[in-house]
Amino acid sequence: MTSWVVDCSLVLGWCLPDERSDRSDRFFAVLPPSAILRVPALFWYEASNALSVAARRGRIPQEECDRLSSLVAGLPLVTDPSTPETMRRLTALAVRHGLSAYDTAYLDLALRSASGLATLDDRLSDVARKVGLAVPD
């Protein structure tokens, strides 16, 4: 069974009109129905913030923000909980790889769940490849 950790940049690149990405479209187009998609708890805050900022700045109307929020909330994403141990792991990984703790949350989950990491963030993709994770083209 295929398992991927998907980050907010990938999901928003699939659904926000002004952030549309061929990489996001390709990823979701070839994703097998049986694939498991994982996100850290942080994902929901990032997605909510990105959509609300897009609406506040007039990039999308409020109705579209509500629709996209429902669309993202309806995705079959398995959410990994955060604990105090999460902080210890993320801090060490972030320092080791020169990433933000936010990006490291996705890297950590991919490593722990033996999943690939799907992101539009080139730096995060590079680190994921260096540690041996699958990264989609």
Walkthrough of the structure:
The protein is an alpha/beta fold and 137 residues long. Helix content is 58%, strand content 12%. It is built from seven helices and four strands. It has helices spanning 8-15, 22-30, 42-56, 62-73, 84-97, 101-113, 122-130, and strands at residues 3-6, 36-40, 77-80, 116-118. A four-stranded parallel beta sheet has the order 3-2-1-4, sandwiched between helices. Helix 1 crosses helix 2 (22-30), helix 3 runs antiparallel to helix 4 and helix 5 packs across helix 6 (101-113). The protein is globular and about 40 Å long. It starts with a strand and ends in a 7-residue tail after the last helix. The mean pLDDT is 96.
Helix/strand order = EHHEHHEHHEH
Strand element count? 4
Return the average pLDDT rounded to an integer: 96
> Per the principal axes of the C-alpha atoms, what is the gross shape?
globular
User: Which residues sit in consecutive blocks of at least 5 with pLDDT less than 50?
Assistant: none
Main sheet properties: 4 strands, parallel
Find the structural class using helix and strand composition: alpha/beta
Give the C-alpha Rg.
15 Å
End-to-end CA span: 19 Å
Provide a count of the helices.
7
Helix content: 55-70%
Q: How are the strands of the largest sheet arranged?
A: 3-2-1-4
Q: Beta-strand level of the residues, as a percent range?
A: 5-15%
